[in-house]
Each structure stands twice: as structure tokens, then as C-alpha cells.
Prior knowledge:
By secondary structure, the chain is an alpha/beta fold. The protein folds into two domains: about 40-150 and about 280-295, Rossmann fold, CATH 3.40.50; about 170-275, Rossmann fold (3-Layer(aba) Sandwich), CATH 3.40.50.1400. The protein is built from eleven helices and eight strands. The protein has helices at about 10-30, 55-70, 80-90, 95-105, 125-135, 160-165, 195-205, 220-230, 245-250, 260-265, 280-295, and strands spanning about 40-45, 75-80, 110-115, 145, 180-185, 210, 235-240, 270. The strands form two sheets. A four-stranded parallel beta sheet has the order 2-1-3-4, with helices on both faces. Strands 6-5-7-8 form a four-stranded parallel beta sheet. The longest helix is centred in the first third of the chain and has 22 residues, at about 10-30. The chain starts with 7 loop residues before the first helix and ends with a helix.
Amino acid sequence: xxxxxxxxxxxxxxxxxxxxxxxxxxxxxxxxxxxxxxxxxxxxxxxxxxxxxxxxxxxxxxxxxxxxxxxxxxxxxxxxxxxxxxxxxxxxxxxxxxxxxxxxxxxxxxxxxxxxxxxxxxxxxxxxxxxxxxxxxxxxxxxxxxxxxxxxxxxxxxxxxxxxxxxxxxxxxxxxxxxxxxxxxxxxxxxxxxxxxxxxxxxxxxxxxxxxxxxxxxxxxxxxxxxxxxxxxxxxxxxxxxxxxxxxxxxxxxxxxxxxxxxxxxxxxxxxxxxxxxxxxxxxxxxxxxxxxxxxxxx
Length: 299
């Protein structure tokens, strides 16, 4: 077989052309797959709950999402390994976020918006963000995928978020009675949104307070203020998507270290409100706003 001599600039051009041809298939597959029809999906990435009555809040939010986006297939995932394991023991299966996204990729979805029910950009949220980012740009994967911001993430939105939380307060509340919201809290810097929320709540209703189970402000901080103001009754409301284990035990339980019991020791009566925020209309509207912003990123 005879060879055609290639030298100098021509040799380099030939090698570059060959390299381009070799890379062309991988470049075409690097972000989705050309020529396939667009298929839109929404993944509701919940932390999860194993409390049956608490799940009602998630079902309410899910129904609102489906009503707002009837052309999108909506799926659900739970990020908590412990909760998924508990549900599996009773015969209920819920995918993890990783599994749910992998299934959506295998099922041919091209554009996926992931809506988180998390309240703050803490450790759990950043872990979810890394998971979503891992699915971006996979060969034969999604053309576009985006994760929503948490409920509390934009300082410009905080007055509206605070007002939405206040709409969960029972109408029978009387003057002089206080409201104590229980948040989860974290040692992550994202915890700063809880004292930030306190500022906006106080500007709307001076007798409303935010406490956390694992961060700051704490219940001790709130009790001191309640005693100074001679408050005799409070409404305890979970600042969480669902009224699950934290709400039913840490907040409203009969154990001596529950918030209800601690307040009672100081002569303050309490009425727990066991309703998750995801099921409150005003809060669900904020979630839908976050979802709309996320879908805009997919265009």
C-alpha cells in the first residue's frame, strides 16, 4: 500500500482533523442526546417522613404542583436513608434522590426541575445540590437539570416568607398570646436564616418567636423573653415541611424535655399545632414560586 507523504503544517492539520473526528461522538453525547423529543419532568425532593398523618402536607404540595404543571410528569424522592428504611419495613418504597434521577434519565426525560422542600441552604441542601450537579452533563443524560432554592434563600423574599408563616397561626389566638415556631436548626452557616426570620416576624407581629432544635436561637432564648413579657400562653408551630417526629415528640410530646413540657415548668401553657408548612396554602405558594424560577433556568 502506498502512502501519501504529509509534512509540516499539513501534518499538524491532519492530526487535528483526526482528533476532532475521534472526539465528535463524545462531544455530541456530553449533554443529552441529539434528535430525541423533549420530555419534561419535576422531581419533588423531600427529606421525607414516616409519620402517616404528617405525609398529608407533602401530598397537598404535590397536588398543587401537578395542578400548576399538568404537562409535566411529577415524581417524588426522599433523601433520608432512615425514613426510607422505616417505610420499606412496612412495605412502602420511595426512591432516594439519586435513584429517582437515574430512573428519570433512563426513562428519557430531557429537562428536569428538582424542587426541594428544605427551608434553608444548610448541609442537607448542599448535599442535594451536589447530587443534582452530578447528573448534569452525563452522556445520554438530561439536556438540562436545575435545583430550586430553599424556602428561605433570598433576603428580598423574606418579608413574604415571614408573612406566609404567620398565616399558619390559628385564628382563635387572643391578644397577649405568643407564637413560637420550631425550626430544625443546624451548625451550618445557613442557620443564619432563622435569626433573620425572627427579625422579619417581629416586624409583623412582636409576639412571634423562632427557636430551633439543633441551632440558634434556642428555646431557652425564647423562654427568657416570654417570662419578661409575662406571657402565659403560646402556640407551638413546626417550622418544617411536615409535622413529623420533631413536631410530635420534641415539640408537643409529654417527655420532660419537650418544648411543651419545658414551657409548662415555667408556668406557660402551650397549644401545639401539628400541621406541616408544606400543606399551608401561603407557604405552598412560595414553593411554587421557587419551582417557577427553577423551570425558567431550564429554558
